[in-house]
Design brief:
The structure holds two protein chains of two kinds. Chain A is α/β, with parallel strands linked by helices. The longest helix of chain A is centred in the last third of the chain and has 17 residues. Chain B is elongated and about 85 Å long. The two termini of chain B are about 35 Å apart. Classes of the chains: A alpha/beta, B mainly beta. Chain A: InterPro entries: Thiolase, Thiolase-like, Thiolase_C_2.
């Protein structure tokens, strides 16, 4: 028996900011959920199950927050699932929800992810003082910066590429009303002049710390037929994981990322992603990850990803726009960041991305990763139902 | 077999919470010795109040004031209070349905012993002397035999009917700090313990996987890719190669290292993957991929303080490109 096609019929986000002191965590997730329901013209009564994700509980220090969020999300009397896969969690949460629809377990599922970073301390949550272990001698950027240098060595990329990505994403964010950073006076010179924190990563090439939530309503073919607005259809979705650290791990282009993308393309019958996919929302917390993931996801040959960035292919008006929303570089409520990628991909194929809409976006990839390049989740959405 | 290490691991952090409108009114009310509940769509009064209706999921904003007296609906005796609990002497954990409420609030009940506690007994709030807008503004509940349901000083009405309240107070509490603390005993296990014992002799010992033959440093007791136990101990280093690195220009809060400094991945000779360390003894801007280094120990440290150049020629990229 073939799978049930899965459609996105509702999308909601909060305006992402540094600190939402006016709402509780429940109030924050509720805001995104209500916007997604309103977009779908549905109520909680139409929802069969709720699938929620966030980064580690240690971030806000609320253990199993899904328990207390059941009321806010209308989940009382319904199945509610919590997903956790570190930074990729927003994506894998959406996929768990999508799989419930695809398997015909539920007809309509509300999926949601959030982080209230202002009430947390991510650095602390990720670097507990484990006895006998040598402490990490650098911050989060210090963990990733050596991998960026490895990429530069391997690809021969000029050291200007990282700034180009940051400049592009921050300009794209100006067209996205929900983005956290709106740097109206951004210039390439300002990015290039920003302090070098963890050489080769500059301050302006790092992501902010945000409070925010993102929600989607996923439904089956019958639900999509009732949708007041064009649905986005899932054409393929996959997750992969690998150990954080192992002998032979390729941090520049992890095998799990390649395998995950290949699985999505196989499901969606994509032979040449560079030609057949119109745009990408990928998880780029440090600017250099754009060229790295372009290669990992098969949009460029190994060592060639930076050429797409440098030649403007990934600009909003380029041949393969990347992070039209401004991306993680402009908005990073960690647990929600992956779902925002997935939701922004869906907004594009629905033609509802507003000022950062890409014309003729028929197939768009949403991508997330997390846990020191340990977890990967991706989906490809289209404006037409999957061929069955 | 060498001793398996153990040590306490204390995890504590002062988390902040934004309260939102309903919890803000509730906690500010406690500061003013007013207990607020919220009325649901079906007319019930929830104490403590919730932001959203557990039945209909609607917004709940219809605040009411209930009495500081109530009835124990169930309880459990706590003979040995722990740090951070409301009372230092043995007490009952009690669910108390305050007069006017339809749900019960969990708190401590101060009583001389379990024989003095029963379901259905009447209790009242004992207010803390210093109140800040927190659940601890209720110091605890205490047994109560009086007729005054209102419980406050003065000629207040004897009533159990909840009274509407606008939730408005001067200088409302909008956020709280929630101190969290977890006490663990951490053990790194057999393999890492052996590794740590060897470090005391300034030797770096890993374990070789019997299937892929790669040497894990520090060892984990199993190979994460082959999924088999590792037992063969292998000494690696002490010299190694810088495979990649970054230059840290910002001071980390908890580190007393002068910036800039180089944070590097170092593949010790014979190791199957790189470990992390600081590079010293060379200007930071002269560090490069392929630089040959050796550990520098200080007297009492468990780990090398840093690594310094050996003076050997740089390693060829092809020899370490799999170890970045």
């Amino acid at each position: 028996m073939s799978k049930e096609p899965v459609a996105v019929v509702g999308i909601g986000q909060t305006k992402h900011v540094a600190a939402r002191r006016d709402v509780s965590i429940a109030g924050l997730v509720r805001e995104a959920a209500r916007r997604a329901l309103n977009d779908a013209e549905l109520t909680y009564a139409n929802i069969d199950a709720v699938v929620i994700g966030k980064a580690p509980d240690f971030f806000e220090g609320v253990m199993m927050p899904e328990l207390y969020l059941a009321d806010a999300l209308g989940a009382v009397g319904k199945p509610m699932l919590r997903v956790h896969t570190a930074g990729s969690v927003g994506g894998s949460t959406a996929l768990v929800a999508a799989n419930l629809v695809a398997a015909r377990v539920h007809g309509t599922v509300l999926t949601l992810a959030f982080e209230k970073q202002s009430e947390s301390n991510a650095m602390w949550g990720l670097s507990l003082p484990i006895p006998f272990q040598q402490p990490l001698l650098a911050g989060a950027g210090g963990f990733f910066a050596p991998h960026v240098r490895a990429y530069m060595r391997r690809s021969g990329a000029p050291d200007t590429v990282g700034s180009l990505v940051a400049y592009k994403d921050r300009r794209n964010a100006l067209k996205n009303p929900y983005a956290h950073l709106h740097e109206h006076d951004i210039t390439l010179e300002k990015v290039q002049a920003s302090p070098m924190l963890w050489d080769p990563i500059r301050y302006s090439e790092t992501c902010p710390s945000s409070d925010g939530a993102c929600a989607m309503v996923l439904t089956d073919r019958a639900g999509a037929a009732r949708s007041p607005r064009p649905p986005a259809w899932m054409l393929g979705g996959a997750m992969r994981s690998e150990p954080t650290l192992f002998a032979g791990k390729d941090f520049v282009s992890p095998q799990a990322g390649k395998d995950c993308a290949a699985d999505v393309y196989r499901q969606a019958r994509i032979a040449d992603p560079r030609r057949e996919i119109d745009a990408v929302e990928m998880y780029v917390p440090f600017s250099w990850y754009e060229p790295m993931w372009l290669e990992n996801l098969g949009f460029a040959a190994e060592g060639e990803g930076w050429k797409l960035t440098e030649s403007g292919v990934t600009e909003l008006d380029g041949e393969l726009p990347v992070n039209m929303s401004g991306g993680v570089l402009s908005t990073n409520p960690i647990g929600a960041s992956g779902m925002i990628r997935f939701a922004e991909a869906a907004l594009q194929v629905r033609g509802q991305a507003g000022e950062h809409q890409v014309p003729d976006a028929h197939r768009v990839l949403g991508h997330a990763y997390g846990g020191g390049s340990q977890f990967f989740s991706m989906w490809l959405v289209g404006d037409r139902p999957p061929q069955t | 077999m060498p001793e398996v290490l153990k040590a306490p691991l204390v995890v504590e952090f002062p988390f902040t919470r934004s309260l939102g409108p309903v919890q803000s009114a509730f906690l500010t009310g406690l500061r003013e010795r007013v207990v607020l509940g919220v009325r649901t769509g079906d007319g019930r009064v929830l104490v403590p109040p919730m932001e959203y209706d557990p039945v209909t999921a609607e917004d709940l904003r219809d605040l009411v004031e209930v009495a500081p007296t109530g009835t124990v609906t169930t309880w459990a005796w706590n003979p040995a209070p722990r740090r951070g609990q409301p009372l230092a002497t043995p007490f009952a954990w009690a669910l108390v349905r305050l007069d006017g409420a339809d749900t019960a609030l969990l708190h401590a009940l101060d009583a001389p012993g379990p024989d003095a506690v029963r379901t259905g007994m009447r209790v009242r709030v004992r207010w803390a002397a210093e109140r800040t807008g927190a659940i601890t503004d209720i110091a605890c509940f205490e047994p109560y035999a009086g007729p005054d349901l209102d419980g406050r000083e003065g000629p207040a009405a004897v009533t159990s009917e909840p009274r509407p309240h606008d939730g408005q107070f001067a200088d409302p509490v909008t956020g709280i700090v929630a101190e969290a603390r977890l006490d663990y005993v951490y053990s790194p296990g057999r393999a890492q313990s052996a590794h740590i014992h060897a470090l005391a002799d300034r030797r770096t010992v890993g374990e070789r996987c019997p299937e892929c033959h790669k040497v894990y440093v520090p060892p984990r007791g199993a190979c994460p890719t082959c999924g088999v136990a590792t037992t063969e101990q292998v000494e690696v280093g002490p010299r190694g190669t810088v495979t990649t690195y970054c230059i840290v220009n910002i001071k980390a809060k908890n580190l007393d290292i002068e910036v800039p400094y180089v944070y590097a991945h170092i593949a010790l000779d014979g190791a199957g993957l790189a470990l992390h360390g600081r590079i010293g003894g060379i200007p930071y801007d002269q560090v490069r991929m392929g630089l040959r280094v050796e550990p520098v120990w200080t007297d009492d440290a468990r780990f090398p303080d840093h690594y310094r150049p050996t003076g050997e020629p740089d390693a060829d990229y092809d020899t370490f490109k799999e170890l970045l």
